[in-house]
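Appendix B. One record, verbatim.
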Amino acid sequence: MSKPNILIIMADQHRYDCIGAYGNPDIRTPNLDDLSQDGVTYDNSFCSAPFCTPSRYSFLTGLYPHQHLGWSNRSTIPKEIDTFPRLLRQAGYRTQAAGKMHFTPTYLDLGFDSMQLAEQNGDGRYEDDYHRYLRERDLMDRIDLMDQVKVYREKAPQPYWDSCGALTSDLPEEHHSTTWIGNQGLAALESWGEHSELLMVSFIKPHHPFDPPKPWDAMYDPEKLQLLPGWTEQNLPADLRMNEGFFPHAKLTEPVLRQAMAYYYGSISQIDHKVGQMIETLKRKGLYENTLILYTSDHGEYMGYHHMLLKSNYMYEPLIKVPLIIKYPNNEQAGERSALLVNNIDVSATLLEHAQVDKAKFMAGKSISSLAGNPGAFVIGENGRGKQYMVRTERYKLILTSDPGKSAFFDLDADSYELNNLINDSAYDQEIRACREHLFQTLLFDAPAPVYVDPLAETIKGDNVPPDRSVGTNLADWIASNWNERLLRR
């Protein structure tokens, strides 16, 4: 059997239950729903970090943030760490990426032969392909700019603040980031032929600001939407102590939330439309059956949960849980649903297994096929350098924070919306201890940080320092060379 092609479609900040296939009664995602029918829908899929870059590095490397060291949205991972794109490239795959990567530097080589980038935050938005495209046409994603760049956000007009960034895009649909990214993906798919192919298409949306273009901004009537599970009429004091919000959580009202939901849903439906075009392209080219297609998100979004928007608080379910739909080659397991606890570090090993490529030595993730039948399963999330850790089992969740007074423990069977913190309830001492032990075992023994070695790193200047280590002037090379000569003379 030939190795399958691989198409990865990643959204940004897509709450797991905002897809029809996950039971949402209001949102229209017909193409993702069809993909679910041809694949496996994972109901308990989690990201390893609740922020963009750390989660994306984990997705690509199969490592936890404490292993790959990319803790923040402005970070670089050591070049010696293997990624699944790099391993697939070494195995003969052509590897391409389109859209948001969120790397530092912007075009960091993590194994993609080519990248057509559309970035949102940091230096990337000033040097990527998408913003060059906009500048060539004298266009600007003005709402996104004032949402993402502090100096402009401080001067944002009142409607931006009143709506929590829920505004119709000032770009027409044909120039919107979702359209541009989707079109780059379609162009790459059109080039697929005899090679084994990997393509990662990564959308900026539905990440805030919630600014779909026309006509997607009018697709949903805010008054007819059902509020998502977990909405509360006011904030929990513990949540406000943790973080008051990018937009002040205490000022969030139901009408503002409904409008944000309508635009958030519109952005997701626009992505779904591009997903449908990509699937249709694969079918037209006769490549659909032998292509593994994976849809997921780098992290979730509160969208009203505990009266909050966006992220940057506790690793509650809507933030740390992400959609994961995988259509396997030849539609194996079509239409199945899985309750397995899956972490996004497990994606690398899963893709490499289907491509018949060995995973890297230090990859902590496991192939999803190997997770079945593990009654003691758990997943771990990390936020910042020790700021917050999460341990999630089928029933319980432990959140440990650097401030012990803010740690939390939840019995999800009895309290699915995480409203009752049981961290000080002695009746749960055994369960809390078990979660702690799982975390410490993983951090200390099961997932050690890989060793970083760079033989060509910068050195001091001096007469005694070999001028060029790339040509073998060090002692080890000299010994090896002379030893070989002596052996040959014997």
